[in-house]
Amino acid sequence: MIETTHSLIKRASSKLGYNEKTVQALLKTDAEHVFEIKLKNGKNFKAYRVQHSNKLGPYKGGIRFHPKVDLDEARALATLMSLKTAVVGLPMGGSKGGVAVDPKLLSDAELEELSRAYVRALARHIGPDKDVPAPDVNTDSKVIDWMVDEYFKISGDSTKASFTGKSVKNGGILGREEATGRGGVIALRELLKHLGKSDKALTYALQGFGNVGSFFALIAQEEQPQWKLLCVSDSSAAVYSDQGLSAKKINDFKLQGGKLSDYEETGTQIISSEELIGRDVDILVLAALGDAVTAKNMNEVKSRYVVEMANGPLDEAANDFLTKKGLVILPDIVANAGGVIVSYLEWLQNKTARHWPEAKVNSQLEKYMIKTVDDVYKTAISRKLSLKEAAVIIALKRLAQE
Ligand code: NAD
After folding, report:
1. How far apart are CA 333 and CA 261, in angstroms?
2. How far is Cα 330 from Cα 234, in angstroms, rounded to an integer?
3. Cα of 288 to ligand 1 centre, how many Å?
4. What is the residue with the minimal CA distance to atom 18 of ligand 1?
5. How far is CA 301 from each of CA 56, 120, 225, 271, rounded to the nearest angstrom?
6. Could you identify the atom of ligand 1 that is nearest to the CA of residue 309?
7. Distance from residue 62's CA to the centre of ligand 1 (Å)
8. What is the pLDDT of residue 4?
9. Among 60, 96, 160, 388, which one carries the catalytic annotation?
10. Parallel/antiparallel/unpaired status of strands 227-233 and 238-240
11. pLDDT digits over 93-110, tens only?
12. DSSP summary character for residue 274
């Protein structure tokens, strides 16, 4: 992922005519904190926080608890965060962190100890005006609430603007859970408007019915009923129906702890999760993991549009191949920016001691998404670029400003 991210920046920089010094400054991270967390019972974990750029505002980025977390992943994700906040026009920078741990193997008490120790180790480097972490893979509002409390004990900061993704009762914002999926629906709607396909009946397949994917499908069903969901997957399998699937039924099934491999409904068919990529649908929405489409399976894609809801779901080879084939790819730093936009609104809400109704949060999110898609689309047309190149170019121009 670090290679793909650096290559994105180098290619866009060359289109902008940047010299080597500017390119190196854009690639370089500002700070990399690597440390060990030792729990009372002797368990030891490697931990990271990479701060890529605070040129546009305090660093902003999630904390991931996952066995595969390492320095290169944190570097890539921190860099992508800087591009994302910049293209959207937020007054924030980019960072990312995590602990190389499988949280499922920890007790609740160990998880709390780990979360608090992570904050103690980083306390000097984070804070409402320095670096504002948020949840990411395997971290949630419970973890963040512990972290906010630990930061308060150390710093006395009672604004709760030190972290976003808090529980609503602890200073969190309404609408955050849905924000990334909702933002994706708005981004796709706006893109289709630009392409003159607004009211057209379109079919789609959705890879990954997790937090992002489920809200994408539920909100799309409600607000864009002309998009028909034909196929949906989780890590166990995919469900397909040429008559269309109900996002609500799938969601109710998943909320009860069901795996899609066990889903039963008349008119539906279970296929392997890999087969979803090659379904004959207009739109492929990728909301699971990075590198979902690579040189191995890029030939199978039959869709005209790809929406990158996950971070980096197309690797460089797949992105280049599909772009050359004429597919329109809505890039991750735009499509999934809804989460960081609403995180920024949470930070702002805490800094100004306000609490907004959900309708206000959603309408602010919508304004940011509409403007971002508009900027990216117009730049792509005027400079004859793909949407991804256009998005990175807009971000770099903001980040490279002296
Ligand atoms: P999640 O863990 O809630 O959901 C991921 C889903 O993908 C799960 O349903 C899982 O079963 C499924 N999945 C995993 N492997 C799969 C496979 N091989 N085939 C099909 N499905 C598979 O995670 P999430 O929060 O929804 O995040 C999804 C992606 O979006 C991640 O790449 C994340 O980095 C990115 N993202 C999330 C947010 C956010 O606000 N949650 C914001 C920006 C980007």
Report:
1. 31
2. 21
3. 4
4. 235
5. 37, 47, 24, 16
6. 30
7. 14
8. 87
9. 96
10. antiparallel
11. 999 999 999 999 999 999
12. G
